[in-house]
Structures are given as structure tokens and as C-alpha cells.
């Protein structure tokens, strides 16, 4: 079995780099940030509304502010080092990625997190 590219670890690294750059870039170029098309059409926030402001707060080390803007993104960010470590050790050993779970529970949890975040954003009137 040949070497395997640790895609999860690379995604975590790119995500962390993006968050580190988000604050300075958003402050320098606010007019370049696009408006949310879903909110423009419906008047309601989408499930990712607040994510840019969450990244800006994270880049400035303001975790409570970031959590207020997008709680699911903060939880994912806290779990990212664990996912990267898991991926790197599997890649080091040459193990392939496991098959996605066939059970309904992981999909239901992911869907609940997404819908729950959307409902929270709507209730808060973002």
C-alpha cells in the first residue's frame, strides 16, 4: 500500500490559515465581501450566516464573540486538531480512509446541527 495524502489534515491547515487571514482581509476589504444571496431573496439568514464574522472574531482571539456568531463553526474548529491528528497518524501508517458510516445517526446529527444553527440564526434575527 502506497503513501496516502492526509486530506483532512490539509483541510484543517487551510481552514486555520483562512481564519488567520480573515480578520485582516475583512477589515481591509469589507466592500468586497458578498452579501448572502439567500438572505437577499428571502429576508431570512442562511445556515452559514455569521460565519464570516465568526472567522473575524476567531482571528482576533475573541472566542465568545465567535461562538455567538456561529456556534457550530467553533465546535468544528475545536475538533479540527483531533481530526488532523487522526488523519496524520492514519496516513503515516498508510491506512486508507474508512468507509463512511452506513448508519443514519451521523447524518441525522450533521443535519440537526445544520438545521439547528439555521433556526438559531433566524430566531436571533441575524
Structure description:
The chain is built from six helices and no strands. It is mainly α and 126 residues long. α1 packs across α3 (51-59), α1 (7-28) packs antiparallel against α5 (71-92) and α3 (51-59) packs antiparallel against α4. The longest helix is centred in the first third of the chain and has 22 residues, at 7-28. The mean pLDDT is 80.
Question: How do you describe this structure in short?
Answer:
By secondary structure, the protein is mostly helical. The chain contains six helices and no strands. The chain has helices at 7-28, 37-42, 51-59, 63-69, 71-92, 104-123.
Q: What string, H for helix and E for strand, traces the elements in order?
A: HHHHHH
User: Can you count the helices?
Assistant: 6
The end-to-end span amounts to 49 Å
User: Mean pLDDT, rounded to whole units?
Assistant: 80
The poorly predicted ranges are: none
Compute the number of strand runs: 0
Largest sheet features? none
List the main descriptive attributes of the protein structure presented here.
126 residues, mainly alpha
SSE topology:
Layout: H1 7-28, H2 37-42, H3 51-59, H4 63-69, H5 71-92, H6 104-123
Amino acid at each position: 500500500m502506497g503513501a496516502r495524502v492526509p486530506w483532512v489534515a490539509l483541510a484543517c491547515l487551510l481552514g486555520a490559515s483562512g481564519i488567520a487571514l480573515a480578520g485582516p482581509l475583512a477589515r481591509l476589504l469589507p466592500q468586497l465581501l458578498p452579501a448572502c444571496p439567500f438572505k437577499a431573496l428571502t429576508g431570512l439568514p442562511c445556515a452559514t450566516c455569521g460565519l464570516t464574522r465568526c472567522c473575524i472574531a476567531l482571528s482576533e482571539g475573541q472566542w465568545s464573540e465567535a461562538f455567538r456568531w456561529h456556534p457550530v463553526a467553533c465546535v468544528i474548529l475545536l475538533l479540527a486538531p483531533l481530526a488532523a491528528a487522526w488523519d496524520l497518524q492514519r496516513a503515516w501508517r498508510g491506512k486508507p480512509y474508512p468507509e463512511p458510516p452506513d448508519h443514519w445517526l451521523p447524518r441525522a446529527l450533521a443535519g440537526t446541527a445544520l438545521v439547528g444553527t439555521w433556526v438559531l440564526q433566524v430566531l436571533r434575527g441575524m
